[in-house]
Amino acid sequence: MRKLLLGSWLLSILFCLPVLAQDTSVSGRVTSSDDGSPLPGVSVQVKGTTRGATTDAQGNFKINASGNAKLIFSFIGYEAQEVVVGNRTAVDVKLAANFNELNEVVVTAYGASTKKRDVTSAVAQVSGKTIENLPVQSFDRALQGRAAGVQVTATSGAPGGGINVRVRGIGSINAGTNPLYIVDGVQIASGDLSTQASSNVLASINPNDIESLQVLKDAAAAAIYGAQGGNGVVIITTKRGRAGRTKFNASVQTGYTDLLKKLNALTASEFAQLKIEGFVNRARATNQAVDAARTSSITQFGDPATVQNTDWQDAVFQRGQLRNYDLSATGGDGKTNFYIGGSYNFQDGQVVRSDFKRGTFRLNVDHQATKKLKFEVSIGLSAVRQNGAIADGAFINSPFLAAALILPNQPIYKPDGSYNAPLSGAFSYNPVQSTEFETRLNTTVQTVSNFALNYEVIPGLRFRSFYGLDYANNRDDNYRDAIVPQFAATGGSATVTNRYTLNWNTSQVLNFSRTYRTNHNVSALLGGEYRQEVRETALATGQGFPNGLFTTLAAAARPITTSGTYTTWRIGGVFSSLNYSYKEKFLLGATVRYDGSSRFGTNTRYGLFPAVSGGYRLSEEPFLKNSRVVSDLKVRASYGEAGNNLIDNFASRALFGLGGQYLDNPGIRPSQLGNDNLSWEVARTLNLGLDYSLWNGRVYGSVDVFRKVNDKLLLERPLPFDSGFGSIFENLGKVENKGIEIEFNHVNVDKGGNKFKWETRWNATFLNNKILELLPGQSRIGTGLQVGQPIIINWYPTYAGVNPADGRSMWLDTLGNITYTVQARDSRVQGSPIPKGFGGVTNTFSYKGFTLEVFFQSQWGNSFLNNNGFFMESSASAGWNNLQSQLARWTTPGQISPVPRPYEGGAEPGSSSIQTFSTKQVENGSYIRMKQVTVSYALPTSLVNRIGLTQVRFFAQGLNLLTWTAYTGFDPEILTTDIGRYPQSKQVTGGIQIGF
Amino acid sequence: MIKSYKVLLTSALLLAATSSCSDLLVTEPKQSVEAAVALRDITGIRSLLISVYDRLQPAAYYGQRMMIAPEILADNVRLTSQNSNRYFNERVNAPGAHMQQLWDNYLGINEANFVLSVIDASNTSDAEKAQIKGEASFLRGLLYFDMARVFAYEPKKIQNNFNLGLVLRTTPTDNIEKVTFQERSTVEQTYAQIESDLKNAITFLPASATASRQRATKAAAQGLLSRLYLYWEKYPESIQAATDALASTSARLVTGAQYAAAFTQSPNPESVFELNYVQATESLLANESMHSLTTNLTTGGWADVVPTTELFNLYEAADVRKAVFYAATKSGEAVNFSRKYTAARGAFTDNIPVMRYSELLLIRAEAYAATGDNAKALADLNALRTRAGATPIAATVTGQALIDAILTERRLELVLEGHRFFDLKRRGLTITKAGLSAVVPANDFRILAALPNAQVQLNPKLKQNPGY
């Protein structure tokens, strides 16, 4: 019934087409007012009709129009112009480049676009210019601090590593929180492929190929993506060909990458001293011989007077190289336009022997086959090769944990030059040796390509048939040489994993746009979409290799494991949207989508996602129209629902899965209970916004206030475990994210032309995340999830410092009294790792050919567990090195010290261990970072033209040069807890860009 | 215009094809199958039974924790001076350091319940039905018994009137309606359920001398029943069950000379019930295996756990069981490592003896001694001591002294096999540790493991153990 209604609504619009009038032919040429060059592809429209034409490669056009008609010339990046035809048959027009950002075109869903001034929903935009030539492997990293409401956190600082993007906070507890990424209409399968290196599927897109990025933030914008829009949608548009002479653009840059900082570890001598104190303190407390304890400490950790120090961080970390080569060409005759881009990117990791290499190729072709039929083809190819480092996790193996923790009295090499391995102490791997003799290689080839057919059914009504493909093939190679003592028992082992993701989508869309009686603009969209994804892996492990020269599986003496997995899901839906504006003053929009997903229960597979929005441009009212202050002012409001279906593909089914082995027999076991009523998680967003432009665009920006409530969460409801099941996915619980987003931009100085100009752009987001409901009648799930608290909390006992009398650690118990034996029940909420706010500020200074851009990025109001500190701030009482801060340990009664006295083993009689999780390790995660500084100089055009070029630009840039933070670990850019996490790096590069 | 309508029509058809046809949304998993079809055939039931065995193998259960924690919570073993911090809290009896991971046994229990509920209607011979029922009953009994040892007091050793046992479930959870909140039974009820499972297992399992001792056998069920009765202080029943088990098992005592090597054989000739580990699929590797923690034989292992000096000094010089240990130096410290887990089944891989012949003798000896039958008790006890090359216990040792001697013998014989803590607990004895001020009396709350807090919070009927 619903579909029938939609259909009849569309038909009713079609039949309302007005009758066309009698006209004469008008022709002319459109050029740029800047340099007089012809502008191809300019849209020429007869006002109040659907009649239109576009200019050819020489900027010429021809159109039929009556004498009193007005022609509207519009082109992306240029000020639109209206011209009265009068009795002329030739009309030449000069278009001025447009710097009013409200005229920027916002690409919305399914190939439709609209001017920013007409947008009634919350959409953030980042232009491709902003991220051009940045030495980052994936564009998501470049979004950080650039778009209000979009929090970007690197999950790994490895080159090409993973990124976490949250649009307007996290609303889901057990379902995924990634936004939907769409590259030229292709919905990208999310999730990292490799396990050998931190990887990122978005690294297959060369950032320099990107024309623009849009983030659909509220439900009104994202509801058209229905079940997949709940976490926001990131739309990436790549550069397309522009008619005219073929233009080449080449750039080369090179530089280095380096650690943000090193940890201040104790020297071997300092460590040995603390160790002696720890041994002696223990001997005294347990009535054992003090001298023997001292001797024992010196035997193990050396004599402070003579012990040799090794700086393991210096041995494991490196200053790496970075190189980028980029070449693109664009051109066409107006009928067939193309963009070709190729790039090669190389970057060393911060850990020795880790790196990232990538080659990309892109071909985008548009072909106007007939007047009505247009083809678009986009082919994107990439190949990535990454030598990964072990990172992330409490294990000995992560260099960002181990390097500072290895006992510093041990040299890297033995006197005979061989590796000193295994090491003593808790960290027995020699990381320098393991990086040399363990191969961790990720090779991924990926294509994100599409084909679209556009057909103009009748003027104003277009049909678009779209087919997109995202195919990625990954191969992980892990080889562990038997030379490493820890791997000796296996005789060397190799594991090869092959994975592929085949993900395609198609959409069939009717797009209608029409102006009635001059003032009534109507546009509508009706379409259907289908997406399917398959993932498979195959894995094999062999052990027993002759030596490190033979690393292929064929050389293995013993095949050990073979394994494989397969998973798939599908989604399909129909959607429609309708936009109406009156005199560009009153704006209305409505969207509806009906989606079905294979992930959900048979009873509840389908869902309806509606949204409405409206805008009112006050600046069109007579009382503001001639205001000198207000150039543009619009208020808007929207409300809508979008869904989230990011759960396991088969989460709703009652399943038996594989159940281990015994005596070489395979087992099966019940793996989950079914829920036939499992359905969409719904994100409801109310958004109020204000777009402003004052003093002719000297000050402009927007303010958005939103409340987003994720309802009917896809929640793993915990079950009484004695049932044999730990949890079941049910639609329960509610999470609220509310906040304010502010974009505030001002041109401070503008002397006009290419004289001095200084512009500042701010964006800030204030966010409040809160769980409103969990299970019926229960306010908690475990300890991590509590009604009234943010989704992620720090749940630890309160640390009460050191007892000045005896140097023992103290904590607070449930009653708030001092205790020495802290228990699980003493934990309480100690802040949240979710920041209360984040943002960025960019200052751009330009003078003649010089440009300086300085970009700061910040987040504040969060705290998280520094798990590295758990190890490294333990009064040197365990088998690993500590930080310099531990030298302030308590030594004499009455002394006020933040550091407890060393005690070998950590736990004094009748006390909890010094190493107990508490607020001692919870640190403030706020920071301000000088994210980017770019200096560039473009040679004067006249000079450049003389040598046959169109542009020559030199640039130098630095990333992450400075960070201000109270955090003591490597890097405060942390999602939940810091444990051996790969931090960001500092990058300094220089390069040249040439256009010809 | 006609052309336009064609396009419209085509697109409408495309839309219809992509939206209304619900077949387009049908997907089938491949690693898993829908529950309804999984157990339709006997092959599915056989594989489900395999899964229950697999549940015994993880490091959180017999793979490591069940073998080490009872030793280090008590006084049999300690950590080396330099260690990886594993079992540190157990060493100092920190509150919450226990074997609470065994709450996971409910996974295996549910699977055994599935097996028992579908086996009678399955398409196989009566002999196989009996075999499978017997194995599943044994396994359910073992899973419950181990949990009872960890989470509850023994029926005759109730402390502070706290007599709760386990939540008892004997039917499978096959849909969400069956997931209800249940309360704990009394420990008497729990023991009765275990007794019934083991008696069923004895009934169903065939008397076979050739049955693999790495799966459940009649003898294993009898042996476990004798252990249950010993804990229950039902001594005559314990004697009977142990005698039955000794008679029906194909396990035997090896000679003193073969003692150490027996631990490298698969199965150990002395194992009444043993878990088999295959390196390719079941190795617990450097972080989780017994081999890694209790020896320094493989580089990359942790070598953290060594016998306490007190235990080591209890061995007589000629005792072959002392020779199971070898002297070594770790970070400058002179220590002794065990050779019970020598990676005999591949890298970091050993079989795990759950019940050995010698334990049956010791159970029977203790039950005899408890019933005053000193002569028979000494006979069983000295059979072991003589075999080991140790001086036999004199006939003058009787009463409590004899029981103490048997408990000491259990330490010498069963070290690193996961018994000491349970022996002290079921006898109501205090844990004392040389070099540590920790003394844990039998009525201390730390003797029982905490139930998972999240579970207690979730299920209002589930009562937490005292003190947590």
Explain this structure.
The complex is a heterodimer of chains A (996) and B (468). Chain A is mainly beta and 996 residues long. Chain A has 13 helices and 52 strands. Chain A has a 22-stranded antiparallel barrel. In chain A, a hairpin with a 3-residue loop joins strand 24 and strand 25. By secondary structure, chain B is mainly alpha-helical. Chain B has one domain: Serine Threonine Protein Phosphatase 5, Tetratricopeptide repeat (Alpha Horseshoe). Chain B contains 20 helices and nine strands. Chain B has helices at residues 2-19, 35-38, 42-55, 65-72, 88-91, 105-118, 126-151, 187-204, 218-232, 235-248, 259-262, 279-282, 285-288, 290-294, 309-314, 357-370, 374-388, 399-414, 420-427, 453-458; strands at residues 33-34, 77-79, 271-275, 305-307, 325-330, 333-338, 352-356, 431-432, 439-440. In chain B, the strands form four sheets. In chain B, strands 2-4 form a two-stranded antiparallel ribbon. In chain B, strands 3-7 form a two-stranded antiparallel sheet. In chain B, a hairpin with a 6-residue loop joins strand 8 (431-432) and strand 9 (439-440). Chains A and B meet through helix 6, strand 22, strand 23, helix 10 and strand 24 of A and helix 1, strand 1, helix 2, helix 3 and helix 6 of B. Strand 30 (655-662) of chain A pairs antiparallel with strand 1 of chain B, so a sheet runs across the interface.
